[in-house]
Design brief:
three-stranded antiparallel β-sheet, two-stranded antiparallel sheet, 1 helix, alpha+beta, disordered C terminus, single chain, 13% helix, 24% strand, 67 residues
C-alpha cells in the first residue's frame, strides 16, 4: 500500500476512516480487497487480516479530520 491511499480516505473524529474514493488494496499474498465509497474502517477492524485503520493512522493522519 502507498501513501496515495491517503487521498482515498478521510479521518473521522472517533479515529475511524471513511473511504471517499473507490479503492482496491493489495494485501499479503497478493490478495485484493475492494473498499467502497462511504465504507468506514475502525481501529482494530481487520480486512483480509490487515488493520487498515492503523496503517492509515500511521501513514496519513494529519490535521484534515472530518467534521
Amino acid at each position: 500500500m502507498t501513501s496515495d491511499l491517503c487521498e482515498a480516505f478521510r479521518r473521522n473524529f472517533d479515529g475511524s476512516w471513511t473511504c471517499i474514493k473507490p479503492s482496491v488494496l493489495t494485501v499479503g499474498g497478493g490478495q485484493t480487497v475492494t473498499i467502497d465509497v462511504d465504507q468506514t474502517v475502525s481501529p482494530g477492524e481487520l480486512l483480509a487480516g490487515y488493520d487498515l485503520a492503523a496503517y492509515l493512522e500511521q501513514t496519513c493522519a494529519h490535521s484534515d479530520t472530518a467534521g
